[in-house]
Amino acid sequence: MDVTHAPTHPLIELRDITKHFGGAQALREVHLTLYPHEVHALVGENGAGKSTLVKILAGVHTPDAGTMLVDSTPVVLHAPNQAQRLGISVIHQHPTLFPDLDVAENVFMGRHPLGPLGQVDWKRMYSSVDALLATLGVQFTARTPLRSLSVADQQLVEIAKALNVRARVLVMDEPTASLSSREVTELFSIVRRLREQNVAILFVSHRLEEIFELADRITIFRDGGFVFSAPTAELTPDAVIRYMVGREMATLFPKQATTLGAAVLSVKHLSRAGKFRDISFEVHQGEILGLAGLVGAGRTEVAQALFGIDRPDNGEIQLGGEPVQIDSPAKAMQLGLAYVPEDRLTQGLILEFPIRSNITSPIWQKISRWFGLLDFARERSIAQDFFQRLSIRAQGINQRTQSLSGGNQQKVVLAKWLTTKPKLLMLDEPTRGVDIGAKAEVHRIVSDLAAEGLAIILISSELPEVLGMADRILVMHEGRITAEFDRAAATQENVMTAATGQVTHGN
Amino acid sequence: GSGGGGTTAATLNIAFLPKAVNNPYFDSAAAGAQKAAAELKGQFKQVGPSDAVASEQVPYIQTLTTQGVSAIVISADDANAVAPALKQAMAKGIKVVSYDSDTAPDARAIFINQASTEDIGRSEVDVLASQINNTGQIAILSATSTATNQNAWIGFMQDELKKFPNMSLVKIAYGNDDDQTSYNETQALVQAYPDLKGIISPTTVGIAAAARYLKTAGLSGKIALTGLGTPNSLRSYVKDGTIKGFELWDVGHLGYLAYYAAAALVQGKITGKQGETFTAGTLGTFTIGANGVVLLGPPTVFDANNIDQFNF
Amino acid sequence: MVTETMTTEQEGQRAPSAVIRVTRRVGQVRELGLLVVLLLIFVGVAVPEPRFVAVNNLRDILLSVAIIAIVVVGETLVVLTRNVDLSVSAIIGLVAFVSGDLFKQHPGISIAVVIAIGCAIGLGLGLLNGLLVSYGGVPAIVVTLGTLYIYRGLDYAIAGGKQINAFDVPDRFLNLASDTVLGIPLLIILAAVIAAIFALLLRYTRLGRQVYAIGSNPEAARLAGIQRNRLVLLTFVISGLLSGFAGILWAARFATVDANAATGLELLVVASVVVGGVSILGGSGTILGAMLGAILLATIQDALNILNISPFWLQAFYGAAILLAVMLDTLIMRRLQRSYLTRRL
Amino acid sequence: MRRAIRLISLWEALLVALLLGAVVLGSSLSPYFLNSNNLSNVLSDLSEKSLMILSMLLIIIVGEIDLSVASILGLSSVVLGDLWMHNAPLAVCIAAALAVGTLAGFINGLLVTALGLPSLVVTLGTLALYRGCAYIVLGQLAVSNFPDGFTTFGFGSIPGTLIPWPFVIFVVLAVIVILVLHGSWIGRQLYTIGNNQVAARFAGIRVARIKLILFTISGFISGLAGVIFTARFSSARADNALGFELDVITIVLLGGVSIFGGRGTLPGVIIALFVVGILRNAVALADFPTETQSIIVGGLLVLSVLGPNAIVRLQNWLTRKRVFATLITYVQRSRT
Ligand SMILES: Nc1ncnc2c1ncn2[C@@H]1O[C@H](COP(=O)(O)OP(=O)(O)OP(=O)(O)O)[C@@H](O)[C@H]1O
Ligand SMILES: Nc1ncnc2c1ncn2[C@@H]1O[C@H](COP(=O)(O)OP(=O)(O)OP(=O)(O)O)[C@@H](O)[C@H]1O
Ligand SMILES: [Mg+2]
Ligand SMILES: [Mg+2]
User: Fold this and answer.
1) Which chain D positions have a beta carbon within 8 Å of A307's beta carbon?
2) What is the distance between the alpha carbons of residues C203 and C212, in angstroms, rounded to a whole number?
3) CB atoms closer than 10 angstroms to residue A321
4) Which residues 6+ apart lie within 8 Å of B126 measured at CB?
5) Least CB-CB distance to A371: which of D179, D189, D199?
6) Are A343 and A47 in contact (CB under 8 A)?
7) Interval between CA A93 and ligand 3 midpoint (Å)
8) D227-247 pLDDT tens trace
9) Which of A265, B186, B219, C236 could cross-link C130 (Cys pair, CB 3.0–4.6 Å)?
10) CA A383 from chain center: how many Å?
11) Is the ipTM of this complex over 0.85?
12) Residues in D touching C153 (Cβ below 8 Å)
């Protein structure tokens, strides 16, 4: 990696940027400087505010406070096309593409090349996009309908889109999240080429090894605040992780020691084409089984297959020793399974409903009397009970969940599933985008539940969380289990290596 | 309020309820009725649905009943669909007269028949026969298959056709008294029967639409067309020869007579029994025939020679 | 529309991988499918009834579809943006009567003026729809359902019991519908030209492509800096304008116009669009497809006439056509996606 | 849109005001308006629509739509008539009509849930298909000679009162729907589906099955409406209730139900039903031309959505102006 002499003139300078979303503070007076001819990595845990910053650079969000300087002149971006005109080109974390159009149009939308008559020049568009795709070494062409691409291929289109404009600033929000290692190398060689052309690059990623391979400078955010920034040369992975986590784990993850009971769930050779393959494991009463891995490793799919949302192609699921067929979430619930989904806003909550109805939603039928008429008194008491047990901070059980902070929303989702008195609780990213305080409470609740003998599967992309909470850790990489560690044996390093699919060493 | 209000012999508050309000045929009938109203110093109004749909007429009957008009003069879109409502009206003391298209006989006192069903049915066949010298395939373009008057005429047409061995009725099409439907039905007839020689359309909307198709398709003179129509809507086709001759009673007189009949009922001069007589202003005296039918008189034949003398 | 087929050939030339060739065909499958179905109908009917393929019958088919086709073009634009315009039939009826009435009230008024007025009315009504949808934030189906009532109500209010008869309007005006150029009826040429123009605009202008974009993924369109509201407004205005123009032609063709002209036509228009393979969820479909859809429905009607099948069967056939069209469309899309899913890992 | 929810209560209040306005208007336009016969006519005219709005409400709440209701009405009416014409016993005819309606609805449901097609297109197709079938069965014929008992049921009122028989059925069904929708777990599940289909599925709600059932119910109700329609006019024709679907949907939306699903109450819709019914009647009583009705109804429909939106926008605009912020929050408090 070549040592860069940071040029004197920054291309973009962000000063004291603050951004709120309703009650939640996503960014707190952060600052960031992008120089030409430099790859600048931005790291931080889930919810640290990385994407929010990216969206501010992209003109999607306008900061509540702070200034943005482009070529040392202050600008205020209100719309994405303003950012585009300033030569800022952005790869968003989640693909924002047009499923009905072909790849070329997705790359060129709004900027189609025009012919002599001012007509869209399709020939030229296709040839130039095909050329562009060639440099990315992809398996599809400019004419492939986007709808037919996998999420990973869509990510590549997103990248092509950003590379297509003569950008002076390239911002990439977790571009490699769902890419194969081959595609990653292709991408990196391109990024290096761009750096040689004096493009300023902001690179957001959870994969430290990538960062240390590519970045010239690293900036670390934590819980919406700026923590530290330095040239890569002056940093080590451990140091970065320390800055990212920035707290003694023991105090934060009060996992109580529990005596493991009988196996609740045992999975044998579970596979689903394109998502995961040959997954086998057991969970016991009172055990917290951690499921670690990078975004896109397939953990959510595994959980959702267990919960009857998608069907596994083959493999066996046993509950309490009995082989079971789980063909629908309703069936899974009957069998005593519960699943706290990855995205609580779209999968976990009815934002229009009050806390009360959300908490009782899985048991509405149970708390109904004759003719299925709801027993409102009973509903209120149950809701009130969990409201207090999980110490949800809100005006009361009748407040609409929409107006709750992320942490409290997450507690409502937890309460919702606890009402079903499950035997096995699956938590997918239970603390993503949840503030520290609430995070700690969620952890306390979870470990209490385990202590009460509940079997728990904890999916989390936050290593410290898994390391702190889990009795046992399974690591997934590209749909396969690559390692298993006991609480004692697990460390940041060996889990991360397994998660990135390098040497598999378990025990 | 008293639903039966307004039946005191003095006040003449008579409402016409045609199949559809936006139909020139009924408008000219209304004109005649207005003339009668003026002569009798009575009130006249015409209400009704914008489409010729039976169920649409019922709310209007109910409204008129509520308003306590002294008489309802109706052209029934579906003889039976309107019967219950009309009976309710009669129960409230409102007189009911049907014109143009009859209702169930027990749902009205008098039916003003524009012309003897038999005359019309037979004469139309004769008119057409003379135009196609008694040979070839012919078709009928009617209104709705439920229209009482249409079916009665068609009955007699079929009977009359027995006299013409070389003429064959190949199809009875229904244009719903709707311009576009009639137009398309005509097109369909011509396509389905390449050898078609003549069309009878005993409905003003139908014949106009048919004439228009024949003209645009350049079939004027090739396929003869006759039926019932208003001079105004057919004048141009008569002049360009698409139609040699067609029939109609004087629609204005129809409305005029209907109003007088209703008035006579309201004033208690008649009850609708057979043999009763009443005078209808300039039209003279009329006698109520079997089951309450009053006959307007023989139809007029309009052709290039006389058409300009009429304006309705 | 020529252009559509041209690009198909171009795409035929360069064929990288098998999978992609499949998908390319799937991309065109709608138009192809419709053509095949049309062909089958023609063959199937022509065998027992050769008159079906007689030139003048084909002319009748195209004539009967011409006016609707013009409206379908506008509807297609609207549907592509994930909206729908149910008020078209009311606009046609209103303009048809007004333009006829103009001739009646002001004998000797120039045809150009009437056409201008008619188009202006259509444009205005479309503008109202568009404003309510884009800036009023009211769902298109609600807005146009409402204006369907309102515009038709206005029509009744203006027309009342009056009826425009052939002799009320000058023959020069009626000729719009009956004139032919090189033996081809003017109506058909007008429809074809309008369709071709908008097909070209949709395919060869950035704005046209953006219409697809906002229908396909509004959020992504926003990130791409596309101004959704203006574009939606524009499509409604065009739809209104074309409906207005169609109304004028309606008056010219049917000569006898009352307040009920074109009642219920909106269903036939939307049906044509859907059968033509334009996704009701927006973002995909072509003018060519929609035209074929309209022609298909008209052909079915004509075939029933020729075969002397009771016209009562017509609606049933229309319904079946719509259902089959969407079913095939979705099934093909599903198949396509499944074929890709298993590619990774 | 989100903030618009706060305004629902407000919207229903507006509807009530509208209703009172309609009554005042009616009685001022015509002395006969408040006449009990007239009110009974209003109810009688609403016979079929009042039933159809019930199932339409449920379907729209789960985020779907059924455009084919009027066609199903026509089809079942025709089936009833055709069987009667062939001398089947009346009971059999009615049963068959209901069965056909139910089947038609079930088919809609299958196409929507099993094949996952958009209900807008599916029911647009069946709108034409079912109406077409009605024409195929009976063509232009009309069957009329039904027994008096049947006709009285449709047209007559409960002896001694002026309450039409069909209205009784509506009251019964309305009570049931109110209980189910606003009081039972099923209702909760319907709103959940309409609000967030994914979350509903993740919460173990059988979305597809519920939708299938709803479309089937809608078919049954439409069939029932078909029987009543036939009885009311003692006339079974293929074109019965042509275009009713627009009125039904209009009433439901006017009642404050979101076309996107998840929002709306039966009381609101019932008020809207009477608003429309009374306005139409008043306008007719006053001898206003027919078209006034459609203009009023259409205008109300657009306003019903535009109104709340406008208020929300106004609010947003005001809240941006700090001065008014406190005022606004105060207003909102007082509202909830
Ligand atoms: N549109 C939004 N509305 C409300 N809250 C939001 C929104 N976008 C982000 N947030 C909140 O802001 C905080 C930062 O989110 P952000 O997506 O920037 O984190 P991140 O660092 O990108 O996390 P990840 O690594 O998971 O992408 C989180 O608490 C998140 O819940
Ligand atoms: N929010 C999302 N948007 C688009 N694609 C996603 C999203 N989440 C996951 N995916 C894709 O789904 C596939 C499996 O991801 P999945 O979420 O199961 O993995 P994971 O290990 O659970 O990742 P995560 O840490 O996000 O939970 C991957 O291709 C991933 O890219
Ligand atoms: Mg992010
Ligand atoms: Mg996941």
Assistant:
1) 202
2) 10
3) 9
4) B160
5) D179
6) no
7) 6
8) 999 998 888 988 888 888 888
9) C236
10) 30
11) no
12) 291-295, 298
